[in-house]
Amino acid sequence: MKDFIEQFTKLLEIKRYSYKTIRTYRNAINVFLSAFPGFNPDLISQKEIEEFINKKVTVDNISQSYQKILVGAIKFFLNDMLRKNFKLNYLMPSRHEHKLPSYLTKEEISLIINSIDNLKHKAIISTIYGAGLRLGELLQLKIADIDSNRMLIRITQGKGKRDRFVMLSVKLLNLLREYYKVYQPKRYLFEGQKGGQYSPRSVQAILKIAIKKAKITKYATIHTLRHSFATHLIENGTDIRYVQELLGHKSIRTTQIYTHITDVSKSNIKSPLDTF
Question: Hey, what domains does the chain have and what are their CATH numbers?
Answer without folding.
Answer: 2-91 (1.10.150.130), 106-266 (1.10.443.10)
